[in-house]
What does this fold into?
Amino acid sequence: SFDIGPNKYSRDPHTEFALNKHHDIAAVLKAVSTFPYRGGSTNTGKAMTYVREKIFIPARGARGNVPRVMVLITDGKSSDSFKDPANKLRDTEVEIFAVGVKDAVRSELEAIANAPADNHVFEVEDFDSFQRISKELTTSICLRIEQELHNIKKR
It folds into this structure.
């Protein structure tokens, strides 16, 4: 069911919208529901470098007084090196949560996500199973945002 061709295959990260593009949940949900499928390799390291260099920057809506959270969703083993990009992203105060779908490798998810893994790493059988973890994932993200907001206010 996928449209295959030389110009329809992606190994590179792509921004669907910047952090400052939408200003309410309805607009975000509408935008997310129209994301096209972008096939390609699982270049997790390249994706995290892209997020650090192109997404969490002031020109794209990142703000110093707002916690930075990334949820990595992957369905396979990374095709490239991911440990150094994950460390660099965490060093820029981005809190990383990792969700593995089906064939994702638990040890990779744990190496990518912030510690503790119990609060930052989730696994589902398939994309339709996200509902099963959505409340726990949302709770973990919100708790970390509250803690980080407290740290930001102290600074």
User: Anything to note?
Assistant: The longest helix spans residues 130-154. The chain has a mean pLDDT of 85. The beta strands are 68-74, 94-101, 121-124. Residues 81 and 103 are 18 Å apart (CA to CA).
